[in-house]
Description:
By secondary structure, the protein is α/β, with parallel strands linked by helices. It has 3 domains: 5-191, Ribonuclease H-like superfamily/Ribonuclease H (Nucleotidyltransferase, domain 5, 2-Layer Sandwich), CATH 3.30.420; 208-286, no CATH class; 300-362, no CATH class. 50% of the residues lie in helices and 8% in strands. It has 17 helices and 5 strands. The chain has a 5-stranded mixed beta sheet. Strand 4, helix 3 (84-92) and strand 5 (102-104) form a beta-alpha-beta unit. The longest helix has 21 residues, at 213-233.
Amino acid sequence: xxxxxxxxxxxxxxxxxxxxxxxxxxxxxxxxxxxxxxxxxxxxxxxxxxxxxxxxxxxxxxxxxxxxxxxxxxxxxxxxxxxxxxxxxxxxxxxxxxxxxxxxxxxxxxxxxxxxxxxxxxxxxxxxxxxxxxxxxxxxxxxxxxxxxxxxxxxxxxxxxxxxxxxxxxxxxxxxxxxxxxxxxxxxxxxxxxxxxxxxxxxxxxxxxxxxxxxxxxxxxxxxxxxxxxxxxxxxxxxxxxxxxxxxxxxxxxxxxxxxxxxxxxxxxxxxxxxxxxxxxxxxxxxxxxxxxxxxxxxxxxxxxxxxxxxxxxxxxxxxxxxxxxxxxxxxxxxxxxxxxxxxxxxxxxxxxxxxxxxxxxx
Length: 363
């Protein structure tokens, strides 16, 4: 575990000689409201007999290390990830993470037609090793890490150099390296954008549609009560009360009379009851409204065009031995059929389907 400035400097001295490094991250979203970067796994080098990474390290972001120096040292190197989207978003919170040369083994596996896209499935296929999943929900903010957690974390980078080599070679053989680059670049662009929460409708959790509009008013109040409690406690909202209990409380309270109260600390229960009383007093005009999605009524010509595209897409996918959704998802086919300005297809997908690029996809 690298947890001191001097240890990080020693690590960076070794990193300087490398052209490629495998990385992964761990966070604590299952244990805290305010998610933070808790661990960075690093691996480089290849063992002659197995091709596995030989220099494996854990970097501790919780030790106030100068991660900007680490990021600076990564510039000019190929960085290997498996499913980089979340890792890049997490790392960007700590500074300007270099993303000029990312190799994402999940994107590569998808375009190679691999049936199993998870790292564990790929490791089992190519290395005959069954990785333990015992630490998937561990609290990565705890120190020291257990031996089991350490082994789990290191395994996330141990196999990446060789796996990247295998999949990269396969992409070249299939003539799909340009497909990979376009798909990888779209993922990277997405990680640079800040996701905006729809603050007005976050309370509309799965199952809310079965409630009455008065039930919606209560659910909205309960959701905001739970969010406030979770923030103050710095725990995930489900640690305060589950979605199932929110829905049950809102439903029972909306029908009047008594309702079964969850087991909570008295102070928290008092605040819950206050939130419910306030919501029960709301006049009907202040209850949440039905959110109607904007649906364009498709003409028969557009429906026929969509069906033709889907049939063509499925034939093409079979020819290249890929899942049809990789060649073109349903939403993209609808965009083409309905002649929308924005078509969420990459140039390689358009070419494969014999479609003309639009201004939004040409770049």
